[in-house]
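Researcher: I need the complex structure. Ligand is pyridoxal-5'-phosphate. Inputs:
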Amino acid sequence: MNYLEIDNNHLWHPYNSLPSKTPIWAVKKTKKSKIYFEDAKVLVDGMSSWWSAIHGYNNKRIYKALKKQAKTMPHIMFGGLTHEPASILAKNLVNLTGLNSVFLCDSGSVSVEVALKTAILYQKAKSKEKFKFLALENAYHGDTLGAMSVCDPKNSMHSLYGDYLSKNIFVKSPNLGFDSDFSEAIEDLKEKLTKYHQDIAAFILEPVVQGAGGMRIYNPKYLNEAKKLCEKYDILMILDEIATGFGHTKKMFAYEHSDIKPDILTIGKGLTGGTLTMAAMITSKNISDVISNSEIGVLMHGPTFMANPLACSVANASIEILLNSSWEKKVSKIENVFQTKLNKVKNSDLVKDVRCIGAIGVIELENDIYAKELQEFCVENGVWLRPFGRLFYSIVAYTISEKKLLKITNTMIEAIKYLESKHAK
Ligand SMILES: *Cc1c(COP(=O)(O)O)cnc(C)c1O
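Model: Output:
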């Protein structure tokens, strides 16, 4: 069956037109860090399906957990009912974070919506009418309306949606660099807090690495200062670790690079090892207590597929696999390879910056016109990468072999050289 033709006629792809204006490749199967195209091409996976496939594809233990759960109970509503996979997952997440109260939902964006609603309810429960959020420039928190309203206004094209989108308050993001000075960003935060604190329910941010909004690595000490300021005004801190969570930055959660704990945490992507869609919002006990003991009394959200047993079982298997692997060592090794290899193109005229942390390697280009050309070069050379705008980056499974990782980094270097030769001044 020529399903590419059906796809071309009927299916939207992410951030695309219908039919797509850029190439769409048909995938037949996956295995570990390999992607098999229908046309017999085999590619090394340099994307881990947008931060999610942390153990590579088709993990046997995950498959076993999925099969077992599918036999006993694929799904059951969570209203008035509970089950073992959800309870085990809650316990796993509480153990990993030291937080207390877990809301399981279907996708990262939804967990962000729930986090924003929780913050508003918490403030309301304390008799404070606070309906605005503070967010960082270059932020990315998802594509639903509430999540979009805390994304960078330019990157996420707020102007397209006019008044339909809530207006929030944005502060300067900390300078690029894990050890860089961030005083300017703190000054801006102080200023905005002084001015608007009465309206602000929470400050939402991606700790240490801003992902889709720019792949920006910043100083974790910024979080310490920002948290102090938030506490001064009883503003909650929501940390969005949907991308960074589960070891991507060499810590289980990126905020562990700092001294703080979030009031509210969102996780997703790597939670099921890239197998099923699931995310979670986790809060301190204080927050769930304040809401539950107030006149409001309840957290008003409840997706149909909340705490889906298949996804919970898979998430539990994924966490077990991660904890029983030497992931810290593996991620450090990956970081080393990214650092030494990608830095080789740092001085290219086409390259603005190279930055790496953990399993994340980023080449930022001077210009945003090369993404399609770069992607086609990589596919041609057997590597799956998906550059966007000025960002040419890779996020790999922690289980990737050194040989495959080198294939990715070498292809990235070759791709830059190819651009240089083609677009030489
Ligand atoms: C991907 C992402 C989201 C959205 O998650 P979805 O599962 O795509 O809805 C939110 N925040 C961050 C930081 C992300 O990287």
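Model: Summary of the prediction. The domain at 3-58+326-423 is CATH 3.90.1150.10 (Aspartate Aminotransferase, domain 1).
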